[in-house]
Amino acid sequence: MTSLADNGPIVVVGGGQVGTLLTIYLARQGHRVTLYESRPDLRRTEIGAGRSINLALATRGIVALSQVDLYRRLEPILVPMAGRMVHEPDGDVGLQPYGLDEDDVIHAVSRSDLNAILLDAAEATGNVEIEFDLRCRGVDFERRTLTLSDHADERRREVPFGTLFGCDGASSDVREAMHAVNGGTSVVDELDHGYKELNIPPGRDGSFQIEPNALHIWPRNDFMLIALPNPEGDFTVTLFMRNEGDEDSFAALDSEADVQRFFHQHFPDFVELVPDLTDQYFANPIGRLSTIRNTGWSVGADAVLVGDAAHAIVPFHGQGMNLGMESCRVLDRIIREHPDDLALAFTKYEADRKPDADAIADMALENYLEMRAGVVDPAYLIKRELALELERRFPDKIAARYGMVMFTTMRYAEVKKRALLQAEIFAELTDGVADLSAVDFERAAELVARVSPLPAAI
Ligand SMILES: Cc1cc2nc3c(=O)[nH]c(=O)nc-3n(C[C@H](O)[C@H](O)[C@H](O)COP(=O)(O)OP(=O)(O)OC[C@H]3O[C@@H](n4cnc5c(N)ncnc54)[C@H](O)[C@@H]3O)c2cc1C
Q1: How remote is the CA of residue 77 from the centroid of ligand 1, in Å?
Q2: What is the 309 CA–ligand 1 centroid distance (Å)?
Q3: How close is the Cα of 108 to the center of ligand 1, in Å?
Q4: pLDDT tens profile 143-192
Q5: Could you say which of 23, 306, 364, 450 has the lowest number of CB atoms within 10 Å?
């Protein structure tokens, strides 16, 4: 049996949000950690055109960040979003609050600002050495060495490891090496929709051109735009759309005229906010979206996967990073529960986490339909209203799925199970019902009586 302290050098590969947060957790357990990141240090590198890419931070991420005393340091760079601001094709705009409680907010945060704070905090522990511009090119599990080299392959070297944490993202090289020795599998499910990032600049006086404290959505059934605020007054916008197809697809928009026609037809209010729309459209790449379900997250006490390397999901629930941060917290706890048996800790961590990762992967896919079509569908809206009303009447039994995912740390698998049961109840109660006043609340009470009380948060 092996403990983390006795197993030799601790190496983390990948300095994204998950790798750096995990490094902080390990350093706070008193371990010395070396982190290798393939990109240059973003704190010392000019990032192109000053456009920020942002993410939604929710409770699961906040709880993990708070546990290592980092959340307070992030607060100045967060922009709270209290609901979805839905932009309809006819120009109508309306806010759908995320929950009943005014604390039910998610937070927009710049990916690079967040990573910079995490890197600073890792170094500040005094237990961490970070080496940038060094990519892991291979892992030899017999000799327990990593091969690293820089972009130009000039600084190639081998380094020993005792325990290796693979946090190198969705197309993890560490995972590939691990699967070659542990027989693990990866199932990649690529969506036929991709994404492109755009930007709404600040107004002339530097202020936000649209409401800052909301996540804006322009749902158009088969495609959608979303916009998240940045503290500098601009918005990071993402267009999600089919990759292929003769109409309303990335493949179909290949000239300036097509792009102008498409945006004027579907998003006329958005066009007014972005003077250089076509330039942005053609300057920015199309991103691919995949769910990657893996088995074989560890190799004995030698290596383990964390974050997107273990579980990559599509971004429609804004949970990939939150899930990864929560995985850091769970792994930290399980390692501390099994101080003398690291291999057992890693096995337990996968057994604990995989059902939850699979559940949020499914819910994230389902949420795409909800965002691009559901939020303006009368059948969806009445169910949503009923969900909130039942939550008000039966707070210990009913909670909207979105809230359980975003504002609790309830296990994702439990959220999915409860949400399915609730969906059946909402469907029965809203069958043939046009508004809330026509709902049979006596029948609702009978149905809700069959639901088990909401579990205590983990
Ligand atoms: C469009 C979009 C929007 C999203 N929005 C949200 C959101 O709102 N909320 C949310 O919670 N999640 C969101 N996500 C998901 C989120 O971005 C990821 O889940 C999260 O960044 C994963 O963090 P990570 O550290 O595991 O991986 P990454 O952030 O991918 O970090 C991996 C790091 O490893 C480095 N690396 C890769 N290979 C090697 C190697 N061989 N050697 C050394 N280093 C290596 C990379 O350079 C990178 O720095 C979104 C994703 C997309 C695509």
Answers
A1: 19
A2: 9
A3: 16
A4: 999 999 998 878 899 999 999 999 999 999 999 999 999 999 999 999 99
A5: 450
Residue 125 tokens, joined: 């522990």
DSSP 8-class letter at 162: S
| Interval 61-102: pLDDT, tens | 999 999 999 999 999 999 999 999 999 998 999 999 998 888
pLDDT at 52: 65
Q: How would you classify the pairing of strands 303-305 and 163-166?
A: parallel
Name the β-bridge partners of 141.
none
Tokens of 97: 């609050």
Q: Answer yes or no: are the C-beta atoms of 114 and 16 closer than 8 Å.
A: no
For ligand 1, atom 37, name the residue with the nearest CA.
168
The dihedrals phi and psi of 48, each to the nearest 5 degrees, come to -40, 130
- Rounded to an integer, what distance in angstroms lies between the CA atom of residue 34 and that of residue 324? 20
Indicate the top mutation candidate among 321, 326, 328, 409 to test ligand 1's pocket, ranked by most ligand atoms within 8 A of CB.
321
Record the tokens describing residue 433, joined without a space: 């019902």
The β-bridge partners of 106 are 81
* Residues 415-441: tens digit of each pLDDT: 999 999 999 999 999 998 888 999 999
Torsion on CA atoms 22, 351, 2, 180, rounded to nearest 10 = -90
